[in-house]
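A.,

Following up on our hallway conversation. Structure tokens first:
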């Protein structure tokens, strides 16, 4: 669900992303990472436009120097949902989202809160079975 299947530069330090569940959005990468260390070359707009998507099993964006961004972080930014682990938020979106779109009916269903059917009591369920 978190894998990036398509990406393209969207001007400046922005990138448009589409995920395997159909969700898509445009993020400002300059709000996600400081342009130092491995990310220093990305401060050059020409170099920034050289972004690619890893092939099979990678599922995120990367640049020729090996810099990449965790696909879960990208997904959290597009969906504005925190990354949860053991019941706690371990990453909160920083507001890099510029535009978001849910492009498929499946993705819209996934984005809605789940509704549970009412549970029958055990006694009532046993009477139904016989």
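Then the amino acids I'd put at each of the 130 positions:
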């Amino acid at each position: 669900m978190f894998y990036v299947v398509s990406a393209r530069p969207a001007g400046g330090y922005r990138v448009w992303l589409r995920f395997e569940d159909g969700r898509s959005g445009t993020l400002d990468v300059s709000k996600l990472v400081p342009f130092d260390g491995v990310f220093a070359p990305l401060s050059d707009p020409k170099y920034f436009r050289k972004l690619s998507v890893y092939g099979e099993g990678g599922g995120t964006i990367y640049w020729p120097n090996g810099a990449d961004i965790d696909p879960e972080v990208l997904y959290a930014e597009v969906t504005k949902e925190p990354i949860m682990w053991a019941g706690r938020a371990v990453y909160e979106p920083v507001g890099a989202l510029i535009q978001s779109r849910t492009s498929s009916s499946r993705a819209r269903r996934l984005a809605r809160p789940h509704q549970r059917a009412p549970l029958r009591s055990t006694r009532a369920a046993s009477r139904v079975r016989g």
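The chain has a mean pLDDT of 79. Curious whether your intuition agrees with the design.

B.
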